[in-house]
Design a protein that fits this description.
The structure is a homodimer of 501-residue chains. With 501 residues, chain A is mainly alpha-helical. Chain A contains 21 helices and 3 strands.
Chain lengths: 501, 501
Amino acid sequence: MGIEEKIGQLQAHQKKLRAYKHAMNLLNYDGSTLMPSGGADYLSDTLETLSGEEYCLRTAPEVRELLLKLTEVSEKLDLQTRREAEELLREQNRLLRVPKEEVMALESAASRATACWQEARKNSDFAAFAPHLEKLIEIKKRYAGYIAPEKPVYDVLMDDYERGMNQKDMDAFFGELKSALTPLIGQVKEAGQPDTPFMEGPFDTARQKALSGMLMDIMGLDRTRCVLGESAHPFTTEFSRFDVRITTRYTEDDLTGNLYSVIHEGGHAMYELSIGDALSYSVLGEGASTAIHESQSRLWENYIGRSREFCHLLLPKLKELFPAQFSGVTAEELYRAVNLARPSLIRTEADELTYPMHILIRYELEKAVFGGDLKAADLPGEWNRSYREYLGVDVPDDARGILQDIHWAGGDFGYFPSYALGTAYAAQIFDALKQDVGVARCCETGDFAPVRQWLTEKIYQYGMIYTPAQLIERTCGKAFDPGFYILYLREKFGRLYGAGL
Amino acid sequence: MGIEEKIGQLQAHQKKLRAYKHAMNLLNYDGSTLMPSGGADYLSDTLETLSGEEYCLRTAPEVRELLLKLTEVSEKLDLQTRREAEELLREQNRLLRVPKEEVMALESAASRATACWQEARKNSDFAAFAPHLEKLIEIKKRYAGYIAPEKPVYDVLMDDYERGMNQKDMDAFFGELKSALTPLIGQVKEAGQPDTPFMEGPFDTARQKALSGMLMDIMGLDRTRCVLGESAHPFTTEFSRFDVRITTRYTEDDLTGNLYSVIHEGGHAMYELSIGDALSYSVLGEGASTAIHESQSRLWENYIGRSREFCHLLLPKLKELFPAQFSGVTAEELYRAVNLARPSLIRTEADELTYPMHILIRYELEKAVFGGDLKAADLPGEWNRSYREYLGVDVPDDARGILQDIHWAGGDFGYFPSYALGTAYAAQIFDALKQDVGVARCCETGDFAPVRQWLTEKIYQYGMIYTPAQLIERTCGKAFDPGFYILYLREKFGRLYGAGL
């Protein structure tokens, strides 16, 4: 069998995997949007079964043989094929260490925990959720033991989201962030806040929906391949680069929640929609890592969407949709309003300055759960203590505390650190972007094609062909440096809250 | 290996099949509701791949061995297990006659044709759809040749929807209908029509949505397991008996479209939601056949929903939601308005009397395509000629003619006759129901629990355990007899349009 034929087999195998991904992502998407509550258990069973089928497909002896043969001749392969074989073999090696039953058990437990979490959060009932959380922690500990018994559990878990991410590096990263931001946050708390009565609403939901559409068009999201839905927690899921779903949520008394959710999820969607043609059916046809993905959502949401220039673009549209609220408001007032920095309870609604502290708290809690002896039952207490210590806020209930995010219910431990890392990536990428592209000019004209083209050329098109480190190096001309992030925050919030900062 | 162990394997196999069904039904549902247009090709690829995976699963040598061994000891099996093995073996025998590539090609062609049909119908552009239709007809002809080369193609196709349905029986059935209804329809056309200005609207969409919810509650549909969505063509799809989706469509100038779509699809949903516990993960856990399924949607829609008694229940709700339109309207006037009999263009909006003629036309066209030499390209002309001959109406464009229904785009040839058959089943089942249950009393109280209980006891709970013929015999105490249907139509429309009929 010649190389060409082997490559054909590799492509056929990937096409199958993509079909399972499409189906399972849709099942999960439907579960979070339309599914009636009674369907939750059956959905868990379906996901469990399909994850077992996918496991068999990925670990089949003939696939192993194919991948090993391709690896032998890797120097004869084009870059894409070589990377495909490499990634598939890496994933196969990972899966072969874990019994199929454990993979299925995780899928099922995560789906059931997610259904429970939705109710538990609504009722602020941590006790109902605790057994699920405990079970997931146990499964994940066993999982890490299968994968790399010689490594710290938490390092193994983080590596699944951002390859190579480990406690040593993240301790340094968060240490730097913490020492830079803690005094800044303290000073902001003492500084006065601007008065922003126009943000109090009410903001009619139908008009907010019109705003969502405008935002998608401003960003240049292809509406024939991307649709916006509603869910309790905004999220993005991709079935292919031809079909990406984003969600938001509407509340009459809050405009910024929807506004920045659409831009944030739109940034994730833009990445997936702009992956190169050749990767349509490839396992490499998705974002390079969770942190790189988050860098793209944050870049659009914060570095562009919360800029002074973007507020100039946005204001006339807000005046048109909500004349009662925004008549007489200046772009500078809007800019200050969407950049209010103040310690708060909810991560997804946090301002840019205090956001990393929310992630730091989760990082420390996850470390304590997987590396120390913190039990699931003790998490709410520890959570509340941390919020008091780091942000100076009192958590009134678990719904606004430990139960606020969906990730742990999905078994995603070690995911949160990638949020802070991605936001820091974004600062460095944005710095490089501004050297080549007139972002301020894009805000003036409302045409972001130059931004999209630059990001496509540097990052989007490659999917997983390059590693996060390679992408940063190629895009920015140097290795990742959190200094860009710290400098950005210091300058932005220094100007907003006085030169003293 | 003992029988118990084999039964366990049979159950595990069915659970896998149900997971594929869940995923593929959801993919199709999403394709008809939320999917952006750009996702259509990728969806076709995913469905093609998964249908191939399902083919492999159903025809695996170890499954064949299991089914044959269970068949050998069938007298030792309980009824459900025996029937499961029987149905799985029957389907396996069917699939083993057809190459896997043909099964996948059909799935892919149907998905692509459905996407094309949506646009073609919008633009009344038969020419765009014709190549897809031709391709599907060719695939289906080849398919029938694989399955039973000795049988007429159309008999093979009809048998897939209603086991044993064939042209000989259906010729007799439609012949009887045609000779009874043609003079009736002629007389109705000559009789005067009641004046029903209150049906002209406008009917606010938000209020129509409220009506949909009321109707679901009146029927007693479990809202934790059944949700209503929107689509161009109303339909029902079930992922499991814990999760059934129905759709409707809203237009401001038409109330009855939504009203009877919800009741019709609600009838389908009720059936699926009421299948017995033991069949949750069984291949028998769905309706007995398409005609039996249709009997249940039609029973709720027409025999209950279009009855005089139901109009009494409905009217106060309509007056509440649409006071401008319905103030001063009597229940008798509403009853006449929802039972206007007049030849029309659109099958799904046809009255009970002319409905069977729509099906007859399709039956004759399908017969001519698969048994004669009618070509896809000649279908619109033949369609229009038939509508003139049988219903006396001129078809103004293909959107309201040959392109109106989705079925052929999905490769569903031989499906339509089951609609007429199901409606005739419903007449006979309703006759039996009325002997045991005070349906008029249910309309008075608004509590249809007795109807649901009777239908569950007689039909719903059994899923596919009994054949359609067995179900009719058990429920009605005699074999299927289309006389009930003809008598019902003659009496109802005789009274509505004068004793002369």
